[in-house]
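Retro notes, item 3 of 5
We never archived the inputs for the zinc ion complex last cycle. Fixing that now. Sequence and ligand:
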Amino acid sequence: MQTENNQNLFVAEFKKYKSEADFVAFKTVSEKSRDYTVRNGKPDQFYESNDSGLLIEVMKNGHIGYGATSEFTSEGINHAFKKAMAMTTAAEKNSVFKFTEAIRPPSKGSYETLRSRKLDQLSLGEVYDFLKKTSLALKTNDKIISATSDVMLIETTQNYLSSAGAEFTQDFDIIVNSMQATARDGAETQTRSLHGGRGNCLQAGAEYFNLDKALQECEQISREVLELLTADNCPSETCDVILAPDQMLLQIHESIGHPLELDRILGDERNFAGWSFVEAADFGKLQYGSKMMNVVFDPTVAHELASYKFDEAGNPAHKKYLIKDGILQAGLGSLESQMRSNLSGVANSRSSSWNRAPIDRMANINLESGDKTLEQMIASVERGVIMFSNKSWSIDDYRRKFQFGCEYGRLIENGKLTKILKNPNYRGVTVPFWNSLSALSNTTETYGSPYCGKGEPSQVIRVGHASPYALFKNIEVFGGG
Ligand SMILES: [Zn+2]
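Structure as it came back at the time:
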């Protein structure tokens, strides 16, 4: 779609329609995805796809409508424009709110992933060599029955023009690299993976592929999966818990990110993704967590998965505190949700592609670091469990009660790491849990997920989460079968 002819057509067609409603925006999305898997040293799955299309947004009498097309011709665009106008005219009768053009700023500029070599310069041979070597490096023992190395490479370009005067392009290179080993001995089967199967998930170019670093990660995964085969089950008791950053990513995502989405708080999502225990009156007041809890929305971090310069309403993206010193400050709401709710929000109007309307989403939601080393945190625990890498999760519709399982644990006794534990799990209730936060490490690790689902029709988008190690007091832990 991003050829010169298409770009000329995009601009010419936009000029044709831009005065046909109170507000008109054209957005193109073009995405190339490659997903390669090598299992036990042999090619397993090689998949490539290209997808591109145009979304047209119109505003008429304070109501918004959408039309989309993958047919990039004058006829296709005309059809999509008519659809957008018909949709807003029909739906206007049941409008919940009358918007103004203030929700569509006239932003101009461009963004591109920080990289030294673009992903389109990476050959299949280079990727296959990396995957084959890492897959074989995982298989250090006959008990390892499956050793998988996978990489997803995504190249996305967005182009946006609006009648308010917005004009920007954004160009993303995304890498999701995961490695996983499954081992079996008799009736016992265990899996260990790079950061709970989500792997290294970031914005970067071809320079990401560092075989030496990946081989070290393989050595650790393969050693730990074999350890789990003979490990004790996690005990069932109430004790301290230290969560590693690759479990915190899901803890932050499910018990901070989703409940703070303003469209959820407004009730838009209740039929599908659910509601939230957070109410409008809680902002500025609710002691969400202990005083050391500082959580930011920050799409400006280089290499983090959901970094960008503008959201899909053209709102410039800035770092903003959602929770400061444990007190809830702002929600994850776009300019539309901010206008409707009269609450503070962020630049998070995002869609999964050209054929979906943008809604309130997470981007990068990060927990800020503390002042302890991990060794100091472990030394402060009389009895507890440290847990690594998310394996399972469950949380209710209001994002209140949750239960998480991890791949790998260690018992902490009298300030020292002792036994290795398999099947470590814990449960809690969001606000008391975060209020039991009592130490944070002084460094953070950054992860992400390409699979956050929400919306009706369904939309899957990419999110980033950075976190330090975190110590929670008096948590219910338990083992598994
Ligand atoms: Zn999600």
